[in-house]
Every structure is written in structure tokens, then in C-alpha cells.
């Protein structure tokens, strides 16, 4: 039987240029190249801010991870969000209210409008006993 080696640490990229991976090297080399072009075309005083911006972006692309993901994916999501169209729709739903239920009931009118069944003490204790002892009311018994 032949044995095979299983590759491990497949999520870790290989270091090709010293402590840098190939992608990190390309980001830094691109940032240095663009900074050199800016330095050559612009006066030194005018080139300082663009060079600082380009180098900060290239350093962030090479080394920064946001929420465990590379910075390039965060930057890509940001650009897609900015460039995509946005449609915000808010539709207020009107509440359907009944005119009779919207008016508050006065305490004096409670007994007049609402029919509240009154249980005598005998019926109430019989109902409590039937719930405690029997569990539920039988089908042939009257429900209160």
C-alpha cells in the first residue's frame, strides 16, 4: 500500500520575497512605482500628499486584515456600494381602526355597554373544584 502526504496549512500563502507573499510584494512594488511616477511628474511639494495617499493604500492592501479578511475585499465591497444604485422605499401603512373601539370607554358606562357574566360564589367554587379535581370539564357538563 502506498502512502501519500496530505498538504497542511493550505490557507497560508508561500513567502516568496523575504517575509512577503507574492501579492504583498506586488502591492508594495505598485505603490512604490506610482509614487516614483508622481515624484517625477510633480514638484516635490505638490507630490507629498499624493505619494502619502498612494503609499498608505498600498501598505493597507499588503498588510491590513479587516474582520479576518484581506483589505482588498473590504475596499472592493466599499467601491461596489458607492457605485451601485440605491433605492430606499418606505411605505407607511395606515392603521385600520374601528370608530367604536377608538373611543375610550368611561368607567360609568362599563356595566351598561358590556355584558359581563356574573358568577355566584357557588358556581365559581364548583368550577374551581371541577378544574382542580377533574382536570377539564366533561363534554356533557355545562361550560361557564
Order of helices and strands: EEHHEEHHHH
> How confident is the prediction overall: mean pLDDT?
81
Strand order within the widest beta sheet: 1-2
The low-confidence parts are none
State the distance separating the first and last CA atoms.
82 Å
Q: State the secondary-structure class.
A: mainly alpha
What can be said about the biggest beta sheet?
Answer: 2 strands, antiparallel
Number of H/I helices: 6
Shape: elongated
Number of strands: 4
Instruction: Tell me the fraction of residues in β-strands, as a range.
Output: 5-15%
Helix content: 40-55%
Radius of gyration: 39 Å
Describe the structure.
With 144 residues, the chain is mainly alpha-helical. It has a domain at 15-83. It contains six helices and four strands, in the order E-E-H-H-E-E-H-H-H-H. The protein has helices spanning 22-41, 44-63, 71-83, 99-102, 110-113, 121-134, and strands at 15-17, 20-21, 65-66, 69-70. Strands 1-2 form a two-stranded antiparallel sheet. A two-stranded antiparallel ribbon has the order 3-4. A hairpin with a 2-residue loop joins strand 1 and strand 2. The longest helix has 20 residues, at 22-41. The chain is elongated. The model has no long low-confidence stretch (mean pLDDT 81).
Summarize the structure.
With 144 residues, this protein is mainly α. The chain is built from six helices and four strands; from the N terminus they run E-E-H-H-E-E-H-H-H-H.
